[in-house]
């Protein structure tokens, strides 16, 4: 493989990116950040791919930013290199991203999962923003995305104490879409991803863009945005195919890519 810290495979129309630094519980060092963002961008550009799954190991999705790499950074090092800003490239990926989370998703690992569009969690998953215990704060969007995902009360408490949240609480709080048995995680995530990848790709991109709009704007502007995009779906072949297939009582075959 062209990568050292991740594995990338294509399973039909689903791209799978697996974090692979087992010796550090998939801690997110610079190389891993460069590789994940490059692989995700490449899959995003690939017309054969309609959904991307991001996963780690059974023990750890990712145990956070690499503490050993950060330990001796100066303010100037962090500022001038815009430490970790490259992760923003993941939010520019238009293809839907599914995080399949098993084990620890801590700090940058929790933030990475929240950069994805859907989080599917195994029963052993643990989420947390423990940065405060290291004398820093979340730096890949944790204070913002966790607050929007689970609300101020829980996000504030999690970020101030650094405690971990188990899957029962994570699902109840709206952080994860679904909880599945540990040994069913990949099967389930791949099935979900294949379902998404089987839809019209421009239409799933429009769904993603529209749902994400809810985080960026007022309700009336968001509804207006949705309406424009809804109208735009009528410019696709896939709208004709989807509705024709329904009336002909057959499965649709989407071809717009
Ligand atoms: C570097 C890490 C690491 C990390 C684990 N390791 N997490 N290395 N950075 N974030 C390494 C350990 O040093 C150890 O290496 C090996 O992985 C196995 O970890 P153990 O601690 O021995 O495993 P265990 O006892 O099972 O405990 C698991 C754990 C613990 C609870 C997840 O590893 C842990 O607390 N990790 C740190 C979690 C954390 O604070 N994350 C937030 C990071 S800050 P050796 O060589 O000793 O075997 C962050 C900031 C984001 O994410 C924003 C930045 C801009």
Helix-and-strand structural type: alpha/beta
Shape verdict? globular
Ligands in the model, by name, code or SMILES, are: hexanoyl-coenzyme A
Oligomer: single chain
Number of strands: 10
In order across it, which strands form the biggest sheet? 1-2-3-5-7-10
> Span from first to last CA?
27 Å
Spatial extent as radius of gyration: 19 Å
Unreliable spans: none
User: How much beta, percentage-wise?
Assistant: 15-25%
Task: Provide a count of the helices.
Answer: 12
Summary tags:
six-stranded mixed sheet, Enoyl-CoA_hyd/isom_CS, alpha/beta, 257 residues, 10 strands, Enoyl-CoA hydratase, binds hexanoyl-coenzyme A, four-stranded mixed sheet, EC 4.2.1.17, globular, Enoyl-CoA_hydra/iso, lyase
Brief characterization of the structure:
Pfam families: ECH_1. Helix content is about 45%, strand content about 15%.
What report would you give on this structure?
Its EC number is 4.2.1.17. It is an enzyme of class 4 (lyase). This is Enoyl-CoA hydratase. The chain has 257 residues and is α/β, with parallel strands linked by helices. It contains twelve helices and ten strands. The chain has helices at residues 30-45, 67-70, 75-80, 88-91, 108-115, 142-150, 152-161, 167-172, 185-197, 201-213, 219-233, 237-247, and strands spanning 6-11, 14-19, 51-55, 60-62, 97-101, 104-106, 118-122, 126-128, 164-166, 178-180. A hairpin with a 2-residue loop joins strand 1 (6-11) and strand 2. Helix 6 (142-150) crosses helix 7. The protein binds hexanoyl-coenzyme A. Hexanoyl-coenzyme A binds at residues 24-25, 27, 63-68, 83-84, 104, 106-108, 130-131, 134, 138-140.
């Amino acid at each position: 493989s062209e990568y050292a810290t991740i594995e990338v495979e294509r399973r039909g129309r689903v791209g799978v990116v697996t974090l692979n630094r087992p010796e550090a519980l998939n801690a997110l060092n610079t190389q891993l950040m460069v590789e994940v963002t490059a692989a995700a961008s490449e899959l995003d550009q690939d017309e054969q791919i309609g959904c991307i799954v991001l996963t780690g190991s059974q023990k750890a999705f990712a145990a956070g930013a690499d503490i050993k790499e950060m330990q001796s950074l100066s303010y100037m090092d962090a500022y001038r290199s815009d430490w970790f800003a490259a992760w923003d490239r993941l939010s520019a990926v238009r293809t839907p991203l599914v995080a399949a989370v098993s084990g620890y998703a801590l700090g940058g690992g929790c933030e990475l999962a929240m950069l994805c569009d859907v989080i599917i969690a195994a029963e052993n998953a643990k989420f947390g923003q423990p940065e405060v215990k290291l004398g820093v704060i979340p730096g890949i969007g944790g204070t913002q995305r966790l607050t929007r995902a689970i609300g101020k009360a829980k996000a504030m408490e999690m970020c101030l104490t650094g405690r971990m949240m188990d899957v029962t609480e994570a699902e109840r709080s709206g952080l994860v879409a679904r909880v599945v048995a540990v040994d069913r995680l990949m099967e389930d995530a791949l099935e979900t991803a294949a379902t998404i990848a089987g839809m019209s790709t421009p239409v799933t991109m429009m769904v993603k863009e529209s749902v994400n709009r809810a985080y960026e704007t007022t309700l009336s502007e968001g509804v207006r945005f949705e309406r424009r995009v809804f109208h735009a779906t009528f410019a696709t072949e896939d709208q004709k195919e989807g509705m024709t297939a329904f009336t002909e009582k057959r499965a649709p075959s989407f071809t717009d890519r």
